[in-house]
Amino acid sequence: MTIFHLSAECYPIAKVGGLGDVVGALPKYQNKLGEKSSVIMPFYDNKFTRSNNFKTVYSGKLHLGMPMDFRMLTLEDNDLGFDIYFVDVPYLLYKDYVYSSNDTGRFLAFQIAALDWLVRLQEKPDVIHCHDHHTGLVPFMMSQCYAFQKLKSTPSVITIHNGQYQGWFGHDLVHLIPPFDFNNVGLLDWNKMVNPLAAGIKCSWKVTTVSPSYMEELKYAANGLEHLLQSESHKCVGILNGIDTSVWNPKTDGYIVKNYTTQSVESGKKGNKDWVCEKFGLSPELPLFIFIGRLVGEKGADLLPYIFDSVLRSKKLSIMMLGSGDGNVENQLESLKNSHNGYYNNYIGYNEQLSHILYAAADFILMPSRVEPCGLNQMYALRYGTVPIVNSVGGLKDTVIDVGEKGFGIRHGGPNVHEVVHAVGRAIEFTGFTEHFKKNRKLIMQIDHSWDASAQTYINLYHSIQS
Ligand code: ADP
Ligand code: GLC
């Protein structure tokens, strides 16, 4: 099957969060299963694009209020495990960031250019797989725009990685979308706005979310799209994300300080923990708790300063936080460095290598998310022998079973300070059962969350919509 994934992010080219990881892994696993799966993404100005060579495979023109030139590029040397194509619209997409507060034109240009190229391919794709609202207008344009009629009968799938963000814009900009039968403009609309995510849900042949629990949650909390998801539920399915076990493998991970397997997990994790504690002025004798992520409300980031302060006052532990986002939360966290000097530290910013070292070094990872469509951190943590402490929501609920229920992690019943402090207490108690704790580490490292199974599930889904 010929599959094209359309996405704003793709690891290792551009990653802001889990979307990048998913789109950098799923096609690779689909190709391993014998399919022809490729990615189309915007051409950004970043480290990857500056240090690799590209060739032009197509030059075209698009209209976005005015005519614009664009190019489709591909890598000269590609060892990603999938083919990748870039939409290069110089003044719009080629920026040193992925997202900004003014992205309507950028992602419209991306989607129009990608379709303009796809309709010209000799071999018609078997499926177009869109990811999040940045590509949500593609299923509409494939089925409605005169210019893309060739793709009218091609099945499209949209995956909702995060239903919170929907890409709304006013109807005054609807003329930027290539001509279509205006009687059908309602397909673009939700609450009197053009809503790309809603349009994607209405017009794609299948809708997936990144865990089964999140699919259910969206029917009751989808930032205004609840009724739409209920009425389209016949074509919706939750498919749990996987992880790329060739990138996330403590045995071979080139980022970490000391590699290890289940056999050498104790000394391996100690090597990484010693490094982190030395670097960030923490005590290696104490259990190390980490948080890694975007500092936003969905992740429970506003709770972190209160959680950290409260547990550090009452318990003996070290905490290391890696993340960035809300400026107020960042400031509060920074000031904890003084009040809990020697027990708390953080790195405000994005650092891929440090994230790997922290997964390897830590005893526990905290994820007090209010909303977590899937969550990859807990799966990476498991693979590196780090016990997840999670709120029972979305994908966290689908991947973490509590030790009290013959499981291997710690779940709490709500995203609040009291619940998390209690959970941290349970975690510290768990370390006291040394043999069980060590056995648990080996066990969690062996849980199979690789993409093998879910990549096949997506392929089965594509097959189910072929005519
Ligand atoms: P989300 O996509 O909602 O941010 P996920 O759990 O799906 O959450 O994925 C987050 C990904 O981003 C993981 O690979 C995680 O390690 C990475 N990540 C998040 N914040 C940072 C950071 N500050 N530095 C490095 N990696 C980060
Ligand atoms: C989103 C979600 C996260 C999920 C990721 C990859 O960013 O917030 O939970 O793991 O997408 O699907």
Summarize the structure.
With 467 residues, this protein is α/β, with parallel strands linked by helices.
List the helices and strands and how they pair.
Layout: E1 2-6, H1 18-32, E2 36-42, H2 47-50, E3 54-63, E4 67-75, E5 83-88, H3 104-118, E6 127-131, H4 138-144, E7 156-160, E8 189-190, E9 193-194, H5 196-203, E10 206-209, H6 212-218, H7 226-231, E11 236-238, H8 265-280, E12 288-295, H9 304-314, E13 318-325, H10 327-339, E14 344-348, H11 352-361, E15 364-367, H12 377-383, E16 387-391, H13 394-399, E17 410-412, H14 417-432, H15 434-445, H16 452-464
Parallel strand pairs: 1-2, 1-6, 2-5, 6-7, 7-10, 10-11, 12-13, 12-15, 13-14, 15-16, 16-17
Antiparallel strand pairs: 3-4, 4-5, 8-9
Helix pairs in contact: 1-16, 4-5, 8-11, 9-10, 9-14
The structure holds adenosine-5'-diphosphate and alpha-D-glucopyranose.
Can you give keywords for this protein?
Rossmann fold, 2 domains, nine-stranded mixed beta sheet, 17 strands, 19% strand, globular, binds adenosine-5'-diphosphate, binds alpha-D-glucopyranose
